Amino acid sequence: MNKSIAFTLLLILTGCDDTSTSLAPTNKTEQPVVAHQEQEQPQQAQAIQLTTAPSFSVRKPGRHIQDQLAFHFTKTVNASLVVRDPNGNEIFNSSSHEATSEHTFNLGSTYNATPLNYGVYQYTLTATLSNGSETQTIEGQFEKGLRPIHEFDHKISDLSIDQDTLYVATGDYMRPIEIHTISTQDDTVNTLAIAGADLPKPIYDIHRIGDSLYFGGRKQDWIGGNLLVQYHLGTQTITVLDDALACQRDNNDECSAVFSLTSQGETLYIGTSDGLYTYRNNHFAKVTRHGLDAYSDIKSLFVDSKQRVWAGSMATGGLTYLHQDTWHPMTEGNSKMPAGGIMAFAEGAEGEIYIANNINGLTRYQPGSGEIAQFTPYNSNIIDHNLVSVAYTDGIIVGSHDYGIAKSVNGTVWTTTDHTNSLMTQIKTDACEFDPDAVGCQKVLVVERIVESQDGRVFAAIGKSVYELY
After folding, report:
1. Phi, psi of 155 (to 5 degrees)
2. In a 3-state reduction of DSSP, which class is residue 250?
């Protein structure tokens, strides 16, 4: 006679204000609870057991995004899955075509306009041994929003990606500077053996060209640090490039910071507090014919799919882009570009450019027609007017300096993710270290950067933690 054993597996993804709480998904998952049968019957071992916790993921194997829920068992089983939306409505009901120990269900896809909306979903999976001798029911929930990957000891100052590796810089002038790597394949975290004294304090941008990592950041006489450092991955050696860079202000004082880095081919573009530079074949050159002030700070750099180089200024505002050896400046004065500093760029599905602005929200620019559209809290429900980062997958994703992240399909309706509806964790401001009762001592969400992998996955550095965004 078949025996039916039911147990519940809870995958609870709720926010937490305690910054010391581990963000590892396993720490947020309760172990399966087996329902006891009649007490007079001896406890019997279960044949059907999970090898790992059920996992929800968003993947882009080709042009389209897929929502997937995966279950791995110790035995070969037949499985059927029912998923209900946040309102309790059944949105998915499917059974496996064959018995196997690994079941992955495709819940929705942008291919046929069925991707899941953001929110918490309930599921019920029924697993049966191929010979019918045992059946188990697994119930739980998952959230389409974000997935915590790792929490570091200190605040993250930059996040960069190269192929399947995330590069994470932590620390500042008060805390040790460290460089970490995270594998996007299995979340493995390592720390590079680089002396913090050789690095900028803090690091503002990381960029890889070939076998070299470049670190740009701040240098001050009283805190130390370097402006630009090259790390050779093969030999694990450091080369400080400050003297060769010879970055100077208009009064001949040395630059105070390298804010941004990007590359086009073998040319490294360097955005500094006092202008734009290039580095190629061990030679630095200052770019002065870009249409902005020669000493304008270049806070953001970006290369799009057409190999245009985009450069944005924060202090003086405006942007410029290089196309076919010609720079095209756009400022508040000579275009419809809004005022404010340019913090980040991203490219949309049709080649449109999204621009994060620290005063006027998000700007969408169509390079072909020159059309400009602006999204602010005044004309849409976008999360904030002070945006520090932007990315694009199956929609626009923006990061606010203080309030979390938001996503929209077309820029008019936004869905916000923060510490109140996800596992996103706040951190305390620096003022708390000196006086916990000070007015400036607060818990905040600091979104440093959002990056996109080549296969369409999106990662964000927020506070001390790295997350995958869906």
Report:
1. -60, 140
2. coil
| Tokens of residue 279, six digits | 């580095």
Q: DSSP letters of 332-376?
A: TTTSSPPSS-EEEEEE-TTS-EEEEESSS-EEEE-TTT--EEEE-
- The answer to whether 396 and 407 are in contact (CB under 8 A) is yes
Do 450 and 458 meet the contact criterion of CB atoms below 8 Å apart? Answer: yes
Q: How far apart are CA 70 and CA 84, in angstroms?
A: 16
Q: Which pLDDT tens digit goes with each residue over 384-441?
A: 999 999 999 889 999 998 899 999 988 988 988 888 877 788 888 777 877 888 877 8
- The Cα 444–Cα 465 span in angstroms is 13
Q: How far is CA 465 from CA 150, 156, 173, 191, 446, in A?
A: 6, 7, 19, 15, 10
Q: What is the pLDDT of residues 340-367, one digit of tens each?
A: 899 999 999 999 999 999 999 999 999 9
Place of tokens 């936004």: 414
Q: 4: which strand partners? A: 135
Q: For the purposes of burial, counting CB atoms within 10 Å of the CB of 319, is it exposed (0-12), middle (13-18) or buried (19 or more)?
A: buried
* 267 vs 232: CA distance, rounded Å: 17
Instruction: Say if CB 58 and CB 70 are below 8 A apart.
Output: no
